[in-house]
Specification:
By secondary structure, the protein is of the alpha/beta class. The protein has 15 helices and 12 strands. The strands form 2 sheets. It has a 7-stranded mixed sheet with strand order 1-7-6-5-4-2-3, sandwiched between helices. The mean pLDDT is 94.
């Protein structure tokens, strides 16, 4: 099974004696041992198997194995949320005195980790502009251990050249970590471009229906081993029920991402022509600053469109309040189209100066384009713009 569409559907836990076609949920906190010696050997790691669901669970294993196969990774670990995946990765791999080199355009909660939480443990983050690779080189110090980036970024949709970032990471012996949330394994595979680890918030497109939380980390076996050693005892484990739900969602991820991308490109093109719109940003629009890079490393443009509305903050609020079909929520990647004002929600923890540096203006609107008929999506946008 080499093709990702097939892997996402046919990768399953071993069928039980009941001959089920659909994978069951293994809702158990612990597991039974044959005898005292078997129990001792399992706890000692001399025999493979499940000991406790904070450590491993068949349903969780199925989910993370699918993600690893789809990303071309050696191994993986599943977490209770996307931010649990981000935190566990850095907490496991960094020591006091280490530094992170990160693109400035990152998710708001990740920014909070970098600027308020990790400094408590003497871990520093050096921010750099998304596409100024000379700046990246200059920001590396002898203590830099991890190179981290999001592409496309949230919500500015900056596109970073994954291959060039790999060259920098390799030259300086850095662990290269990519947040692949916006694209999923269907659209982009950072490991093909040299990434050591790939992180997903499965809460978004992987679930795709706004039902539950989940996260995934996949990549090099040795790094996953370190993350597993940390996570087994710190406890950010994914529940079996959410793992089952997310694993089933992966079966339709390919066709959903195709529709998300098709709808989003259509909406982006129409927004460009509207008199109330100052600018539009979408990876597969030819006027995107990194359009050629996006076409090189992405199979589709994804489901996120950002645009600037004339009139800034007041006009943005009026637009959101005038929408009739759209959902106003901080989530994204849902089957239902969502509108968000990042400056006052997802990225409100950043200062105004920090938001301006990554292009999050007061008038920026983020649209997560859903699976509805594109004409219905556009009609709601058009009437709300006035």
């Amino acid at each position: 099974m080499k093709r990702k569409e097939t892997q996402s559907i046919r990768t399953q836990t071993e069928r039980t004696k009941f001959g089920e076609h659909s994978t069951p949920i293994y809702m158990t906190s612990s597991y039974v041992f044959d005898n005292a010696e078997h129990m001792r050997a399992m706890f000692a790691g001399e025999e493979e198997g499940n000991v406790y669901s904070r450590y491993s669970n068949p349903t969780v294993d199925e989910f993370i194995n699918k993600i690893a196969l789809m990303e071309g990774a050696e191994a993986g670990w599943a977490t209770a949320s996307g931010m649990a995946a981000v935190f566990s990765t850095f907490a496991a791999l960094l020591d006091a005195g280490d530094e992170v080199l990160s693109s400035r355009s990152v998710f708001g909660s990740t920014h909070k980790l970098f600027t308020q939480i990790f400094p408590k443990w003497n871990i520093k983050t050096n921010y750099v502009s998304a596409n100024n690779m000379d700046e990246w080189e200059e920001a590396i110090t002898p203590n830099t251990k991890i190179l981290y980036l999001e592409t496309p970024s949230n919500p500015a949709l900056d596109i970073i050249d994954l291959a060039k970032a790999k060259e920098i990471a390799k030259e300086h012996n850095l662990i290269y970590v990519v947040d692949n949330c916006f694209t999923t394994p269907v659209i982009q595979n950072p490991i093909e471009f040299g990434a050591d680890l790939v992180i997903h918030s499965a809460t978004k497109y992987i679930d795709g229906q706004g039902r539950g939380l989940g996260g995934a980390i996949v990549g090099r076996q040795d790094l996953i081993d370190e993350i597993e050693a940390f996570a087994r005892h710190s406890g950010p484990c994914l529940s079996p029920f959410n793992a089952w739900m997310l694993s089933k969602s992966l079966e339709t991820l390919h066709i959903r991402m195709e529709r998300h991308s098709e709808n989003a490109l259509g909406i982006a093109k129409r927004l460009q022509e509207h008199k109330q719109v100052e600018w539009v940003k979408y990876p597969f629009l030819e006027n995107h600053p990194a359009y050629k890079i996006a076409k090189k490393q992405m199979a589709m443009g994804g489901g996120i469109v950002t645009f600037g509305i004339k009139g800034e903050l007041e006009a943005g609020r009026n637009f959101l309040d005038s929408l009739k079909m759209f959902s106003l929520t901080a989530n994204l990647g849902d089957s239902r189209t969502i509108a968000t004002h990042p400056a006052s929600t997802t990225h409100s923890k950043l200062s105004e100066e920090e938001r301006q540096k990554v292009g999050i203006t007061q008038g920026l609107i983020r649209l997560s384009i859903g699976l509805e008929n594109v004409e219905d999506i556009w009609e709601d946008i058009e009437q709300a713009l006035g």
